[in-house]
Amino acid sequence: MVDMKLRIAFLVLAAVWTVAVTQSSLAAQAAAAPAARTVWDGVYTEAQAERGAATYQSACSECHGADLSGDGFAPALTGAEFTGNWNELSVGDLFERIRISMPPTGPAGVTPAQKADIVAYALKFNKYPAGTTELEGKADVLKLIKIEMKK
Questions:
Q1: Which of 49, 77, 92, 138 could cross-link to 143 by cystine, CB 3.0-4.6 Å?
Q2: The pTM is what?
Q3: Extended beta strands in 56-103, E state
Q4: Residue 79: CATH number of its domain
Q5: Under a CB-based contact definition with an 8 Å cutoff, are residues 118 and 98 in contact?
Q6: Tens of pLDDT along 5-26?
């Protein structure tokens, strides 16, 4: 009987210890993880969007239009089509799509930094606010920024 009580006490103690360690680990992970951001948090700068406008005009406007409205073949980068395609995804997802496939005649002709500038221009065009830090030309960093249609 005493042996059974010791086993039960040991199992209870082990369970309590496991829960405590798990909660401590989760709290440490949450503290180490960067805070979730959205496009409403000012994730690009005005200067970056201006550079992006110039690059967009030379590398993208032929297909996506000067007003980012698309041409039927190339999708719109503004309005309902843009928000319908990208709402709830990340800026990193958008950047990756552009990085690996745009422009279709030669994706390597536009650098990752220039593509981040183009994304900044698209965000500005869609009336997301500018901030004080530029978007980086790195998908893993940009995946931490969510595109949300509404604030």
A1: 92
A2: 0.77
A3: none
A4: 1.10.760.10
A5: yes
A6: 544 443 344 343 344 444 544 4
